[in-house]
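Issue 218. Parser rejects a valid record. Input:
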Amino acid sequence: MRAKELGEGRFALVFDKGDEPMSELERFARERDLTAASFTGIGAFDEVVLGYFDRDAKEYAEIPVREQVEVLSLASDVAVADGRPAVHAHVVVGKRDASAHGGHLLRARVWPTLEVVLTAASAELRKKHDPETGLALIDLG
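Output the parser choked on:
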């Protein structure tokens, strides 16, 4: 992944073939100690694992898509969880037949590129464990 600062807390992030975007985004957020940010992106993956939160099991069911897909929409936030920046991303991907699949972005492999614009804020967002769901949710209190 290559990054360029655009000014005023904005960055262009360009992922290369074979990059794993979630781990790269987590690394970027931690290296810059981001405490609140959002980003959007477009591009393509040669495979992706989506997640659907199973509220009864309190865990993500994995939904693998083992084919090349277009990233139609990537939306995310960055907030502090357990004392460090954490990325929470959702994605909608399109298949060759124009069908779309979406969910929580668990893992993916970029091909040929993924282009992301990240906007960092000077504020801090913190996540707090929610016992009912088992998730770390943003707490504005």
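Fixed in the parser; the record now loads. The two ends are 35 Å apart (CA to CA).
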